[in-house]
Amino acid sequence: MDPKSEGGQEALLNQASAELAPAAMAPSAVAGTPKQYSGLSPLSEENFIDTNLPVPPKMEEEGHGVFHWEIDNWMQLPDRAISQTFTVAGHDWDILLFPRGNQSSEMVSLYVEYKPREATQGKDWHVCASFCLVMSNAAEPELFKMNRAHHRFLAEEADWGFTRFSELRPLVTPPDEETPALLENGRVRISAYLRVIKDPLGVLWHNFQNYNSRKHTGFVGLRNQGATCYMNSLLQSLYFTNEFRNAVYQIPTEQDDPERSVALALQRVFYNLQVSAEPVDTTELTKSFGWDSIESFMQHDVQEFNRVLQDNLETKMKGTVVDGAVARLFEGKMKSYIRCVNVEYESSRVENYYDISLNVKGCATLRDSFANYCEVETLDGENKYQAEGLGLQDARKGVIFESFPPVLQLQLKRFEYDFEQDAMVKINDRHEFPPTIDLGEFLSDDADRSEPWTYALHGVLVHSGDLHSGHYFGLLRPTVDNKWYRFDDDRVVPAAPEEVFEEYYGGEFPQQQTQMQTQQTPPGPGPGMRPRPVSKRFTNAYMLVYIREAKRDSVLCAGAAPVPAHLLQRIQQDREEEERLQREKEEIATTLVVRVVGSEQFARHQGFDLCYFDRRQTAGNPLFSERMPRDMTLAAFHEHYGARVGLPADGFRLWIMVGRQNKTIRCDHPLVGDAMGMTLAQLLQSRSPRWDNLRLFCELRPADAPADFLTARPPAEMSLIHIKFYDPVQQQVGGLGSAYVHRDQCIGDVIPALRSMAMLAPDAPVTVYEEVKPSMIEELDVSRTFVAAEIQSGDILCIQPTAMPNDRRPLARVADYFEDMQHRVSVTFAQLPARNDADVYGGGGAAAGTPEGAAAETPLALTATTKTSYDRVAQWVAEQVGMRDPLKLRFYTVSPSGQPRQPVRRMETTTLGDMLPSAMFLQPTLNPEGLPEYTVMYERLEVDIVQIESMRSVRIAYVGKTVKEELPIDVLVPKVGTAQALIEAAYGKVEQALRALQRDAEEQAVEPIALQFFAVASHRIARLVGGDDRLNDLGSPGASDVVAQRLGSADDAAAAAAAGESQMDTDEARARASAQVEVFHFHRELAQAHSLPFLFTLYAGEPWCATWERLQAKLGMSEKELRNLGVVCGPAGATDPRLCRVLVQGGSASADAAAAAARAGSPVVGVEPSPAAAQTPPPPPPAAVDPAGSGAQLAVSRAASMQSNDGGAMASPPPEAADDMCLWDVLQQLAAVPPGELIGSIGLNHINRASRNRNLHHERAIRIRN
C-alpha cells in the first residue's frame, strides 16, 4: 500500500472543501422544540451525487455509483479496516479506514482503494475517478461530514483519500444538547460516491513522474537549456515538416566541425528526435550558433531566430542537390503597388517573403488579419500620388499576394510598440484561427489557380507570459491525421482539438461557471461596489504554421531520406564516449586513487615536502598513482605495489601520510600489524577523510636491518626523519634519504652521518635547517636534542654548506631558495598585436618601432620569482628584443580570455607579480616543471615611461569625408597646457592611422588633410576648440568628447561653385559667403540626442537641393536609412521645438517629432515621402522651406509613405519643380549670430539602432556563424 504523505493529502484537502450538514440547516422557529434537519441526505443517492460530485467540465463519465458501509461498533475496528469490495463502472473498489489515524492517533483517515484485476489489466493500468467520502449519523443521515477529490489511480498510487479527514473528538462530541454526535454509540455510516471519468488522451490528472514521452506518444521532446523553449517549439515544427528534414539530411557535412556547423548540429538533433528514447539535448546546436552559456538563458525572438536559421541553411545548401529546398517550402511572393484611378499607370514591386507578420489588434479572426494586411488605401485630395510624367493623380495603394508557399508561417503581432507608454507591450486580445482557411481571395488576378489555395493548420506556437518573461511551447499535428500533441520542452503529451482552437485564442476567460465553482465562488458585488476585474488570458498563439492541402502529402509524408553515414558514425562514437564516461563514473564510485612516494621520487624532488601530490608534481618525476578498489585490503595492495615497482614483499613497508595544521603533508605512522587487514577506504576515512585519494610513503629496508625490522612498529623513542641537501652553487635541492634518530640524541651527534650522506668532507662546516612550512625554514641549534627541537617522525631536515656572512650569491641559503620556489613562475612575454588606432603613447603594438612588413617578434619565456622588480624585468626583455632603453617598453596584464588589459604602472614597488592576473580570476596552467604559466604582453614605445607619467591620454574621434568614416584616436598630451599640443599630436596620429588604412587598401599616397576641432557634450557640439584653449577643459581617458573633423573636401568646393561662388576670387570673399552649422542626431525629441555630431558648411545663395545632396554625401547613409530620415533646422544648440522648423518627415519617428513641433506652434515645412516605383532612384531633397518662414511651398504630393516589408518607408520621386529655398537665409533669420560662431543647427531624426538593439530583447540579433 502506498504510504500517505502528509503534504500530498494536505494539498488535496485544500482543494476539496469539508462540509458539515448542520451548517446548512436552520433551527425551528419555536423555542425548545427539537431541531428539524432540511439538508440533503447521503441516502438520496442521485440527488446527492449530482449536487456534490457533478461531472467535471469538458469531460465524460464511464459510470458512477455509491456504496454505504454501516459500522456498528467503532471501538472494535482494527487499526486498518477495509470495507467490502464494490463495483462502479466495471471497476472494483473498497473503502480504507484508519479509525485511529494513519499518522496521528487523534485523526480519522479515510481513503478509496482501487482493486485491480491482475489477469486482465496487467501492470500499466490506470483509472481516473472523482470521489466523495461521507461520514454520516447512522440514525439521522442529514447530519454528515464529507470531503471530495479526484485522482488518477495506478499501480503506484492505488489508494487515495484524506489522511486528516476529521479529528476524532468532534465526531464523538455532540455540538449541542439537541443534536446527536455524528459518531453516536459506536455507530456511523461511511459512504463512497464515485464517478469514473473517461481518459481519451491517456494523461488526465497525470503527475508526469517517470513519464516516458516516446512510450506514450511515439515522440520525444527537447531539453530546455534555461531559456531555449522558443527554439525547441520551432525545431519541433521544422522536424515534422518531413520534406524539410529530408533536405537537411542531404546537406554535405562530412568535413564540418560539430561545434561550428549549424547544419551538422541540426542533423544530429533531427536524428536524435527520430530514434532517441530520452529528451534530446540542443547544447551542440546552440554552440554552433556561437552562443555562450549566458545566451542560452536569454529569450530571443522566434521570428528572428527562424529567419537567421533558414538563411544559414540556404547558404549551406547552395551548390548541392538540395539547393533551393528552403525557398521551395517556405518562400512566397507579394506585390506592393500604387495604381492610378483615372490614368493607366501603376508602380509596383514584387518581393519574396518567408513569413508574414499579421496584426492581432483590431482583428478578430485570421481572415480579418489578412484583409487588414491587403487593405487598399486611397490617395486623393492633398495626398495625391505623383505619377511619373502624369503629375498628381488619385491612386490606390496596397499589397496583394502573388503566391503562397507550401508551408505558410504566420507571425501574429502579439508584441507591439505602445506610443503612449513609450514601450513594447504584449497584445492579449482574442484572435481566432480556423483549422482550414482559403487564401485565394488574397491572391492577384494573374495567380496560378490550377489547384485550390486551401491551407490546413499544422502547428501553433504558443507564448505564455508577458513581454519580459514567459514560456513557449508548441501544439503540432505531425501527420495528416487529426491527432494533436503538445510539445512542451522535454515533455510530449496528446492534446484535444478543442484545446488547440479555443484555449489559445487569447482574450478573456469565459464567465460561465460550473455548479461546483458557483458554490465555492463568493457572490458578486453588491450595489455601489466595484465589479471584479476581468481576467485576461496571457497564454495565446504567437505563430501559426499552415500547410497547403494540395501539398500536404508531399510535405508531411515525403519518403524518409537516408541518414548520412558519417552522421551515424559520429553519433556511434559519441555513444561509446558516453558509455565510457558512465563506466568511469561508476568506477569512481567503487574505487579510490592511491598515490605512493618512494625514495627515488624524494631524491629528485626540487620543492617542499617529500613530493607534491597535486598537479605541481613534475612530469619527469612521476609518483605511483593508480585507482584501486575501495574494498581492497592493505595486504593485497602491499603485494600489488611491490609487484608493480619490482620490490620484494619483505623489502619495504608503507607509511600513511596526513595533512598537518600548517598545510604540510608528512608521514604519520607505519602500517603494520592489524592495519594490514583494513581496507583502503577504511584507511582513508580513519586518517584523512577530507581527501579524495590515499597518500602513502614507501620505506625501504636497510641492508643491515634485522629480519623483523619492517613488520614491527619502531620504538616510541625513535623517530623517522627525512634528510635533504641544498647546493647553493647549483641552486638545487634533493632528497638524501631517511634515518631513525633517538629523541634524546643531540642534533650535532648526527652531523657526521649527514656529511657522509651528502658526500661532504668530514670537516666541512654545515648548517641544519628544518622545513616547518614553505614560508618558515628555521635554522636548528645543533646543541639541542631532537625532542627539545620538537623534531618528530615525518619531519624534514635540510643541510647545506655553511654560508659565509659576506656571501652575496643569489639564493645563498636554503631559506632563500624555498622563498624563491614559492613565488617562482613561468612567464611568456608576447608582443602586443597591432592596432588600427595606433598607440595611445606613441606605440602601435607589433607595428610600432619595427620595420614595415616585419613579422611579430617571437614570444620570450622567463622563469623568475614574482618579487622580481619591474626594472629588472624590463631590462631582461629589452636585452632579448635588442632595445637599448628598457623604459621604452610598456607591459600589459592579460585577461583570462587572452586580451590585454590596462597598462602596468611603473613604480618603485612594482614587481613581476603586479603584471600577472589575480588568482581569483585565473587558475593558471602548469608547465612540465610544475610552475604556473602566465602571459604578459609588451609594447614598444616612442617615448619612455617616465615621460608618460607626466602626460595624459585624450581620446579624439576623427571624422573623415563621411560621418561613417569615424576612427578613435588616442593622443598623449601634457597634463597642463593649451590645446595646441593636442591639435599637433592629433595631426600626426590621424596621418599615421590613414597611412595604415591606405596601406591595407593598397593605395599609394595620403592626401593632405585639414582638421577642425570641437568639444562634444551629451551628443551636441558644446564649442569650437582653438589652440589657445586650456587642456584641463578637454578630454578624459576613454571618452570621445573631442572631435577632429576633416575639412576642405572637393565636394564642398564643387558645391560652392554651383552656388555661384566662382565669382568670388579671394579667400576673404569666400569666407564671408559661407558659415558652419551643427548637424546632430536625435530620436523623437530634440533632447534625446545620440551618436556623434559634426560640422557642416552652408553657402549663401546655395539652393536647398544642392545642400541636401552635399549633406546626403556627408552622411554616407543607405537609401533605406535616408527614407526614414527626418530633418529639422534651428538656432545653434536649440532644444526647444518651438524655435525649430521641420524640413522633412521621414517615417513614423519623424512624424512624431513633426506632431510635437506642431503642438508647440512650429510650422511643419516639407513633404512626406510618397510611394516609389520599382528600382527607386536615390532619395531627392525634401521639400523647401519658405525663406520668410510663412509655411511650406509644396512641390510634390503629400501622399502617406508606403510601408515596406521591414516597416520602413519607400523613397520619394524627384520633385516636379526645382526648389530655390536657401537654408542660409532661413537660419540667418532665426537668430542673430556673432561672427565666427555656428549660425544654426540641423537635426536628423532617426532611431539609434545600436541602443535599440541593446534594449529591446525581442529584436536582439542572433549570432549564427556560417
Automatic annotation (TrEMBL):
Q: What class of enzyme is it?
A: hydrolase
Highest taxon above the source species? Eukaryota
Keywords on this record? Hydrolase, Protease
Q: What is its EC number?
A: 3.4.19.12
The protein's name is Ubiquitin-specific protease ubp15
Gene designation per UniProt: UBP15_2
